[in-house]
Design a protein that fits this description.
3-stranded antiparallel β-sheet; two-stranded parallel ribbon; RNA-binding; single chain; mainly alpha
Length: about 500
RNA sequence: GCCCCCAUCGUCUAGAGGCCUAGGACGCCACCCUUUCAAGGUGGAGAUCAGGGGUUCGAAUCCCCUUGGGGGUACCA
């Protein structure tokens, strides 16, 4: 039987790093085994679910390149697959039918306890140092008693009878797990009094109806797995194989959260992390090839992925390592590709008012040899060469003077350099033609070339760290170089 | 509290009884390259394999206990 796996996000927030990683592992497993990757939206939390989050999640998964074989219709995209709809709120009749079956078999029963009663129970248990569990007040109501409550206008929630015994399963990553049903907290609610089915119930009905063979999800669901297994059995379904992935952690080793880490994929995209790096990084957070390979494309990951080799322990999200990988992948991009990906970030600089004009693709292309290896993220482009696209740069006298120089020397140096650059550029303004005469100039005056170059660098860019000077001068153009040198000279003279 | 899971450098990891005086990568430090910054190269610091008991001729690897950490325990997902 070929594998059928799914990612089942709740549209209650933007695409989360953890969801993306779980989706990736499901995708890798499906593609590696020639199986089917399914997307299902778990939107039964009516209050917190929104269509905006749905879109965000689907767009994010697409952006990462994790395309699904079956999934819901959304944003103009039609539903795909034989088990539509793939959005839980559109599958209500299925849950209702399953609930009916459990009720008919007396495997579930209506519970009329009020929130106040349940709360009181919990408090009493806490006071008695007992684990919280449903006391079973409504477990043995007679048909007459139920009718009486309904007649009072009370609407019952549906509770599933957990019974007794030990539930055991062989988790693909954790091995054998056994949990005594007595520790499940008593009969649990599967359908709310308002008729809305709950997660533990819908997930089972859907995984069964959609014929999932493997459930690959976060470790936070491990403890609840017995509830699911009980439900699969009660409903007469086969039980899928489970694989619980290690959690992605905050630096303090708690489950990764918005409060302590950046968790939205959107934020990483906005900062200029590229999908190749994110996919590569996430794949290696909790799994490794067992070799020393670490720069791996999505296809290579598909080729090497092994669910059984996934780690058991949680992994701290390390942004520095992600950044390094991002740089590695940026350097592997073709010129055209990099220009396409850079453009939105340059536009963002313009929109934010940090630059004053948009460079052409040809300008960007000419810059690539010197910026491609200097970009940790696409978002760093403005910081790196934004000085090229503003009318004037701010320079202050203090940084203008190189460490080993004083102001008069700097003035002499820049004045001489200005003349040399002006002369050199008569024919053509090329890096090869600028460097020799400026080096000769430094030598003639007994200056260290680096000092002269630094003075020029700060004069024309306003900063001490830039791409190589001569490439920078060429990118700036003769006129602007001369104008900025003049301005810098003015600053030196206190003007 | 109760239940479950986990445990190798700061971090991500290799390691499935002898190849380990524990390997790689990120980060950090130094040097090389070099006009600055990167990139790249070389080298270095960094883990008594959480601790304690076993098993074994031999344990990071197997077993037990302890400790630590995490997750779950909703009419959230």
């Amino acid at each position: 039987m070929t594998a059928r796996v799914r990612i089942a996000p709740s549209p209650t927030g933007p695409l989360h790093i953890g969801t993306a990683r779980t989706a990736l592992y499901n995708y890798l497993y499906a593609r590696h085994t020639g199986g089917t990757f399914i997307l299902r939206l778990e939107d039964t939390d009516r209050v917190r679910s929104t269509v905006e989050f749905e879109r965000d999640i689907l767009e994010g998964l697409h952006w990462l390149g994790l395309d699904w074989d079956e999934g819901p219709e959304v944003a103009g995209e039609p539903a795909r697959g034989p088990h539509a709809p793939y959005r839980q709120m559109e599958r209500l009749p299925l849950y209702a039918a399953a609930a009916q079956r459990l009720l008919a078999d007396d495997l579930a029963y209506p519970c009329y306890c009020t929130p106040e009663e349940l709360d009181a129970d919990r408090r009493a248990q806490e006071a008695a140092h007992e684990p919280p569990r449903y006391v079973g007040r409504c477990a043995r109501l007679t048909p007459d008693e139920r009718r009486a409550r309904e007649a009072e206008g009370r609407r019952g929630a549906l509770r599933f009878r957990v019974g007794e015994g030990v539930v055991a399963f062989d988790d693909v990553v954790r091995g054998r797990v056994e949990i005594d049903v007595a520790n499940l907290g008593g009969d649990f609610v599967i359908v709310r009094a308002d008729g809305n089915p709950l997660y533990h119930f819908t997930v089972v009905v859907d995984d069964a109806e959609m014929e999932m063979t493997d459930v690959i999800r976060g470790e936070d669901h491990l403890s609840n797995t017995p509830k699911h297994i009980l439900l699969f059995r009660a409903l007469g379904y086969g039980v899928p194989r489970f694989a619980h992935l290690p959690l992605i952690l905050n630096p303090d080793r708690t489950k990764m959260s918005k409060r302590k880490s950046q968790t939205a994929i959107d934020d990483y995209i906005a900062q200029g992390f590229i999908k190749e790096a994110l996919v590569n990084y996430l794949a290696l957070l909790g799994w490794s090839t067992g070799t020393e390979e670490e720069i791996l494309s999505l296809d290579e990951l598909v080729d090497r992925f092994d669910l059984g080799a996934v780690h058991k322990g949680g992994a701290v999200f390390d942004r520095e390592r992600l950044e390094w990988l991002n740089g590695q992948w940026i350097r592997r991009l073709s010129a055209d590709d990099l220009i396409d990906r850079l453009r939105p970030f340059v536009e963002a600089e313009l929109a934010a008012g940090r630059i004053e004009r948009m460079p052409t693709d040809e300008e960007l292309r000419a810059l690539l040899p010197v910026i491609q290896e200097r970009l940790p993220t696409l978002g760093a482009v403005g910081d790196l060469v934004g000085f090229l696209w503003v009318d004037d740069v701010a320079v202050d006298a203090a940084t203008l003077v190189p460490k080993r120089w004083d102001a008069p020397t700097t003035r002499d140096g820049l004045t001489a350099a200005r003349r040399t650059i002006e002369d050199a550029g008569e024919v053509s303004f090329e890096a090869d033609e600028l460097e020799p005469p400026l080096r000769a100039l430094a030598e003639a005056h007994g200056w260290k070339a680096g000092d002269l170059f630094m003075a020029i660098r700060v004069a024309v860019t306003g900063r001490t760290a830039t791409p190589p000077l001569f490439d920078t001068l060429v990118a700036l153009g003769r006129e602007r170089v001369l104008a900025r040198l003049d301005r810098a000279l003015g600053v030196l003279d206190g003007r």
